[in-house]
Amino acid sequence: MAIGLKLRLPIEFRIEKRLQVSSRLRIGISLASLGLALALSSLIFALGGLSPLAVYGTTFSWIFGTSAGLSFLIVKGIPLLLCAVGLVVAFRAQVWNIGAEGQLLLGAVASAGLALFVMPSAPAPILIPLMFISGFLAGAGWALIPAILKAKLNVNEVITTLMMNYIASKLVEYLIYGPWRGKTTWGFPYTDLIPPNAVLPTVPGTSIHWPTLILALASAIIVFMLMERTSLGYEVKVFGGNPDLARAAGIRPSKIIILTMLISGGLAGLAGVGELAGIHKRLRNPLHISAGYGFTAIIVAWLARLNPIACILSALFMGALLVAGYVMRSSMSVSEASVNIFNGLILACIVAGEVMLRYKVRVSLSWRGRRRGVGNGPGRAHAPRGH
After folding, report:
1. DSSP letter at 49?
2. Is 163 exposed, middle or buried (0-12, 13-18, 19+ CB in 10 A)?
3. pLDDT tens digits for 211-225?
4. For the chain, counts of helices (H) and of strands (E)
5. Lowest mean pLDDT: which of 53-57, 76-80, 314-318, 333-337?
């Protein structure tokens, strides 16, 4: 009588947190995430009747192979870097500032008002620094309102900062449609051009307004030193890690909340000055002044793992995505929907890669078997009886 062995192979999946992440694994997962995103995007382009190789070749060769493309990339990265570095300060304290968009707009409004109505004839060495100072103070002041509400009344800062973005946008619209509408704009809703002495100088042959670029790079270094080398940075990290422990150690929550929001809003305000005086030269539609930089900067900050130095690379990466979308639409006739899908897939795969860096999936097989008699039905196998 034949003896059979019936096997069952249950597969067990367990998610475990990684204790260490090597640099090789970090690079490998990042490259794999990017490759997966490009592969998925290729399917979208192919379904739309476009050659993925032609789209990628034209886009990336223009961005990284021409001076105009590199200039455009840096110009897009400047406001992203300033806003992201400011958000790093707030997020490290677990203060969720979602209002960088509005703070940027207030920085643009303050600098425009100074250049157009307060000191239009001041020499550039005086006017331009004062514009940056006014922009910083305006952005910080706009962030101060939700900071006080959070510190004194425990009002949720996510809601207040988000809502204040819309107030800032409508304030800009009121000004450009109303009292600040230009006299030489043929009725269009924007202000007159700021005087030449208020325009930021640029790198020759490019549109890179280098004063704002220097401020952005300096802010990343200064904030890094602030967080790692000062008592304020220590208090911010302690409060963000354990608010109860921070209170027990004598750290005042209201101080941390207000200071981090002031720094965060002020840096976003500097970005608004750069966009006004370096790019547009006038106050205009808020969607043009800030093309969603304040919201995109949230992604930049998180991709950098709340490291202000790493924000430089992540800001350039996000700037490259923005420029790539522009090139695809203008040169390759790629639809707006396809561009949005491309950007979304890139970000989604990168975020998924970040999860894989923190956790690993362990698959285990447990071999189990039980003997049964073949030909004897479902019962147990019986040994043959002797005669």
Report:
1. T
2. middle
3. 999 999 999 999 999
4. 14, 4
5. 333-337
